[in-house]
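stuck on this one:
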Amino acid sequence: MTTQPAQEVCEQAFQDYAEPLLSYGAPLSVICSRHVTNRYHSSRIYIIASQSLTKNTTALEELQTALGDKVAKVHIGLSQHTLMSECLAVMADIRNVQANLIITLGGGSISDAAKIMAYALANGVTDKSDLLSLPHVMGSKLGLGGNTMPPAIPIIAVTTSLSGAEYIPFAGVTDDEDGIKYQFTGNCKGPSLIVISDELSVTVPVKPWLAAGVRAIDHCVEALCTLLRPAKGWEEAEEAAIMGLQCIAPSLLKTKKDPSDEKARRTAQLGVRHSMVPLKNRVFKGASHAIGHFLGPMGVGHGETSCVLMTATHKYNFKVNAKEQSAVCNVLWDIPEVCSVFRAHNLDKASADLGDLLDTFVRELELPRSLTEVGITSQKELELLARHTLKDPYAKTNPIPLRTPEQVMEILIACI
């Protein structure tokens, strides 16, 4: 780990990997300008910024001022869940201005968009057909590398979310026409530098921040509850997922009480990288993520999908992974701030299962707990969601593999 001037801390996000680097402690404009000049030597920068952050903060203005005439163009606003049509349009714009660096300012959807844009540009993609010819996990292309080229344009991600998308090389993109979410793999690559900004994090409204944090908790919990432990890397993944819970869960409770608590927000963001280690080590998720990938494009926020689905998922799986769930329960009970919440809600350590604990935690954060609360009420929507879920690779890596719509419906009915 190295400490730079202006209190910047810059370190490897993952011990055994040179990239991504993780930087925090100094103003985002200072960090970005320093790395653009000293590391990337970039002269044509394309900035993709969140519409809400652009409207409600001065972050974009400060970044543009710091970078000066190195900024080739700025694009403001992308839809949640990373729509394919928008990605293709912005990708063409990046190509037209001949950008040699992308900086994102916002959440997971913008990070995913930048990843797929850089990957697509490196492989001559011009339209949807070209894009779907790249390796992905929603069709026949299931390989890892294929004949694709890795991105040539590096990405700096100034993250304002707890979803963790910036830490992984995969990129999720939603087809506008049918709502199917494709996860692009192959030589797709994540950002080379991730920037955490204390002053920017506290501008994110508390509800979406907390919901994204629940998503990060979902990453940890589903990893710890898997029955498909890899022969190599499991111990590291398990330790990291536990550390993620220990960082993120109490920080969310503190942020709920005081949204201006910069330390709590930073602790949660630093915990997110731990939540991504299991996926890096090929510890795959289960039903909560599988269903969530398709519930999201139906108009539900990323984090809210986990708020709604986690409890029912673990109650459904309990008959095959009770031991694993019990271990996670012990981790949660051992976190003092979380334990206090359970005690306040009269939960009994001997009888409350993991689903009960997660349900109580989400309710304490005053986040939605049912499909009804997020606007999914019709039988037609549920049946469509059940069918689509079976297309997701995590349906088959759930502790009880999901192979029929009826299995998914059992979980969904418990979420109503």
User: Anything to note?
Assistant: The beta strands are 2-3, 9-12, 21-24, 45-49, 71-76, 101-106, 155-159, 171-174, 181-184, 193-196. The CA atoms of residues 80 and 109 lie 6 Å apart. Confidence is low (pLDDT under 50) at residues 139-144.
